[in-house]
Design brief:
about 550 residues, mainly alpha
Length: about 550
Amino acid sequence: MKSKLYKILAVFACIGLLSCEKDFLDINDDPNNPLDVSLELLLPSTQLDMAGALGTSGGGLSRVTSIYMHHWVERRPTLNDYALSGSDFGVTAPWLVLYTRTLADIEIIIQKANEVEAFPYLGIAQIMKAYAYSLMVDTWGDVPFSEAHKAGNLTPAYDRGEDIYPQLFTLLNEGIANMEKESDFQVGNEDLIYGGDTDLWIKFANSVKLKMYNQIREVQDVSAEVSALLAEGNLISDGSEDFQLYYGVGTGPDNRNPGYVQEWNAGNANYNISPYFYETMANLNTFNHRNYGGDVGVVDPRIPYYFYNQISEVSPDDSPENPCSYCYGYVDPGSGDFITVVPELEGTGVVSIYNFSLNIDPNEGFDQGASQTVSGLYPLGGDFDSGDGGASSFAGGNPQVPQRMLTHYALKFVEAELYLTNVVPGDHRAAFEDAMWASFDKVNEIAESVGAPVMEETDIQEYIDGVLADYDSDDNTGKLEHIMTQKWIASFGFGVDLFTDYRRTGFPVLHDGNTDNLSYTIRNREFPHSFPWPTANLQVNGNAPNQKVVTSDDAKPFWMN
């Protein structure tokens, strides 16, 4: 079922490649497939493509980045040990949908909007283009830009990331200027993100700039630009202004969150919850993996929003259907005895597998579809874990939960980082505390929107106080680790920026299969500096570079020291 899903998504992406890169067999006009699409129809389809390309389903960029950042574990050779290649679906699918379809359609919107002076559409498209390209540069390094999607040019050159970034700042400024112009055109509900709200699009554009300036702070003096943005304050200022795309509950056509559709398809979840991630939140350290800058000492109250246990409590009377490697225990199918595996998990229903254990885990190959812990309400619209257990399936869950992309809490973490690293003067501790509160508020916002329980303020306060007590006792390196670790926890469900944060700061410290006390976890490769380019694109584009070695210095993005 999983491989079939990947094939369907691959075909879907490849269709986009054919339709956007080259006009095949266009000898006749098909009235059922018009060659011209209105701005009102093109904008929402472009936004859906962008959210999907960045999201949590198998074809989204958050899939591989979240696995590499140890939120999820998949039993796949290319994902288990940093072995991603240019022919892997996790590379080709998001590139195809983001570059070949999303950005190609954005270019059409820009052209059409320019012709008729539809300035709101033009501004939105320019801002979306800058945002999408910034993520492509952060992920792949050099990408086609100056010659991309130009009529008649099917082999665009790859521009250097350091040459693209300045043009993206210019594009964002142009987008803001166009949003502020008078126009006979108005954008309404066809804008699936902000409903045509000019002020929110301008706030988003400024927020993208702040994030990008933080990204390049180690290779460029950005203090003046950051100071101006923070002084103006026209940024995403609360969770209601987050750059995110809400989904629906319909199946014909299917408008549900793609991550939910994939992961809550009864017994067919692709993602196992990383034990490292779970134990960081649960204040456990069962396999000598904790390198976190001091233990918080408090269990994170977001756990039931993040993880859904299909077994309420693993026990001899309610055991996983097969032997498991990360669980309290299981009933041996031969002897009928209950075998304890991880004693510290007693009282929980957590069932998962370890990172770095492909082909060496003694429990590998056992299906746990009906018992494994799956992604819950917050990351992709599963159920809140009330502790009662029950199978994950389309009969439950909340498929309307949005795909988060750029949020208020993420910006507050950025602000704390900028203050701590002395890019600009400011109170890094206060910004860090605000960021944590905003991240908890986001979980409560989503919970409240679907009728799930919300976290008590006293529980949130206890957790934040525990973090801040440890934060106050650390040096600046330890403080940065705290900021990036809390951002990592808060951003479950959007791994794209976390992949970038880790390469830029070295935090959070990740699980290392060579230093834990597990005999069946081995890390054979180093963390990649960037994604490989899609092999198929290199093969058909004579102006493309040779494939990179992703761990070499040449593969580093320009902002990475």
